[in-house]
Amino acid sequence: MGASYQPLDPHNQKPSSKKPLSFLSKPVCAWLACGFISLALLHLLCCSPAGTQRTAFSPLLQYINNTYSFVSSVPPRGDESCNYSEGRWVWSPGYARRYNATECNVKESHDCLRNGRPDTGYLDWRWQPAGGCSLPAFDARAFLTAMRGKHIAFIGDSMARNQAQSLVCLLSAAFPNRLLYRDADPRKYNFWRYAFPTHDVKVSFYWNPFIVKATGKSEDESIRENHVHLDTPGDGWGADADTIDVAVLGASHWLLNGAIYYNGSEVIGAHNAPAELNYTGVGYAWPLKMAYRTAVERLSSSRPRTVVLATFSPAHFEGRPSDSPTACTKMEPYEEGEKELDWICKELRDIVYDEAQAAKVRIAGASATRIEVLDVTKMAAMRPDGHPSVYMHRDPFAHGVPERMYSDCLHSCLPGPVDTFNEMLLQILRKRR
Ligand SMILES: *[C@@H]1O[C@H](CO)[C@@H](O)[C@H](O)[C@H]1NC(C)=O
Ligand SMILES: *[C@@H]1O[C@H](CO)[C@@H](O)[C@H](O)[C@H]1NC(C)=O
Ligand SMILES: *[C@@H]1O[C@H](CO)[C@@H](O)[C@H](O)[C@H]1NC(C)=O
Ligand SMILES: *[C@@H]1O[C@H](CO)[C@@H](O)[C@H](O)[C@H]1NC(C)=O
Ligand SMILES: *[C@@H]1O[C@H](CO)[C@@H](O)[C@H](O)[C@H]1NC(C)=O
Questions:
Q1: Which residues are catalytic?
Q2: What confidence score (pLDDT) does residue 287 get?
């Protein structure tokens, strides 16, 4: 079992193995590899008569350019037969220190380092897929090259947002970004889009925690109920659907909590609604399927497009109250066998596989839309240490240790385990059809 945080004395932490952010290392290696060329170039620049510099310079620069692009734009492609969804986390010091989240404007409650989380061991793990294959480290150039000219939209709940922000950070660490728009309220991160002009790539997030159209609590937290229209795409992404080339859909948590479900104007049932309303109980599984179905139908078209269905990413409250400062305090991943997936995780994951399969059958021949599953359930389930916990607040123990304090045991710190979801996403998107 892992040790717990030592909130009483945040200075009394054993220093972690610090390693500088590693995203620079690949280009640096590439430049080192062509060091001899640079020396030659320097020689030319210093010692050639001025008139010959330009002509001598260009082919050489071209060559360096090509060498450089060759080295850096052909990163190891994942083994296409590799199933990344099963595996284990292996210790790999520094591997997950991929970016500085403050610089890519993530939601403050996920910026664990900025918020003062003292232990950084959660950034020392790499996902090792079962079966001997490997999951290559995220490569921003490979991602942008594969997605050149495309619009990638994450649609779903706050876990989908977590992954979308991770992607923006991973890309921004290597390439310039431009914020195209975001919510008017600066505390919200519900609708935004970034452009990566070097490759004409856009990344958007659409807050649709039921995927489909919802009113009530998801729009206004002071309202108790969710009213969910299973037959209608969510407002924002529904309107933009024709501009989306890659849609990553992720929702489950709000369906587990419950809602009143509609088809057209007719109530067809509810989950977790007050009994006196006499609604037919429909559980969470069937509405989840219907939501994915409506989305896939809206996104199916003759234009080649990819729809990625993400599986459930579980929380680690493990029955503890969420307002306890010790709700999730583990500092290491679970070991293999230490913790089995519970049946809800398995069921929710199976629903996504089943719905993806059903969608493939339904649209076969009729649409060029490609359906993929991003199965993150196991990798997420094994990482109780990767959540912000009390470091969802800035310097939570600055005024002593309060008895009650909310812990985030659901989302991932950024950087953190959710970055690995995007490493897997990259391999899925680079796969040949
Ligand atoms: C090097 O590559 C970049 C991007 O691929 C290109 O814009 C630039 O013109 C190239 N430089 C030379 C000298 O070929
Ligand atoms: C990958 O592994 C998961 C979990 O064991 C399984 O459900 C899925 O069918 C596998 N995928 C493929 C393409 O074999
Ligand atoms: C991240 O960047 C911010 C702003 O540039 C800087 O103040 C901070 O020290 C950096 N954090 C880390 C962990 O490097
Ligand atoms: C909604 O009603 C239509 C028309 O009756 C029906 O075809 C469709 O299957 C229903 N959808 C759901 C989610 O119940
Ligand atoms: C629910 O059913 C009970 C018993 O049939 C009935 O008395 C009550 O009025 C119903 N409530 C609503 C909101 O329809």
A1: 158, 408, 411
A2: 97
